Amino acid sequence: MAERRPLVMGVLNVTPDSFSDGGRFIDPQRAIAQARRMIAEGADIIDIGAESTRPYGGAEPVSQADELARLTAVLPAVVKLKTPVSIDTMKADIAKWAFDQGAAMVNDVWGLQRDPALAEVVSEYDMPVVIMHNREAADPAIDIIADVQAFFQRSLDIAASAGIARDCIVLDPGIGFGKTPEQSIACIARLAEFKRFGLPLLVGASRKRFINAVTPSEPDQRLGGSIASHLEAARNGAAIVRVHDVAETVQALRVAAAIEGAR
To answer: Where are the alpha helices (DSSP H) in 14-170?
Structure first.
C-alpha cells in the first residue's frame, strides 16, 4: 500500500525571483537543507534551477556565470545525498557542468529549441532530458493540444538528429507556460492524448496561476489545487509530477493508489 506512482520531483529554486518561493533558498545552506527535507519526505528526484523561468513573464535573464555561481555551492552537495538530481537549465554549458558534477538528467523548459548545443550535450552524456512545451506568449485562439504536439515533434526531431536515445526522453506539456488558464487545465484533462508519442509524461502544476483562475489564491495558498491537479495528472498517465510540497503530494498519491487498489 506504500507504493505510489508517479514519481515525485521536488522543486529547488536557488533564485531570487521564482514565482512561488523566490529568494527562500538562495542561501546555499538553506537550499541543501531543503533538499534533505524533500528527500526525507519522499522525493524521488530533486530538480535544481538557478535561473527563474517564471511562467507568467517578468523573469530576468541570468548570465551563465551567475547561474553557475548559484549552482556551485548547492548542486554538488545535493548530488552527495544520493537522490537523483535534475538540472533545470536551457544552457548547454550549464548542463555539461552539472553532468560532470553527477546530475542525472536535464530539465529544459524550451525543449531543446533554445540552445542548439544542448541536444549534443545530452547525447554525448547519454542522459535523460525533459522536453517541455513553451511559447513566447499565450494565444487563446489556438488549439493548445495540437500546438503542444507539434512542438514535441519538433523537439523530438532535434533529439533524433543529435542521437539522443528515445528512451532518454520525457515530455512535459508545460503547465502555465505560454498558456491561458483554460489551456493549462485542458493539458491536464487531455494529458492522455500526449501518450501518442510513447514516452513518459511529466506534469508540473504546482502552485501555478491557473489554480487562481478557478479559486482566487496566492501561490502559497494553492496546495489543494496543486494536489488536485497532480492526482488528475496521475490518473491521466503522468509518470512524474514536479512539486513544491513533497510530503503532502506523496501522501495524496499513496492514499489515492490505496483507494484505487481496493476497487
So the answer is: 28-40, 64-72, 75-79, 92-101, 118-125, 144-162
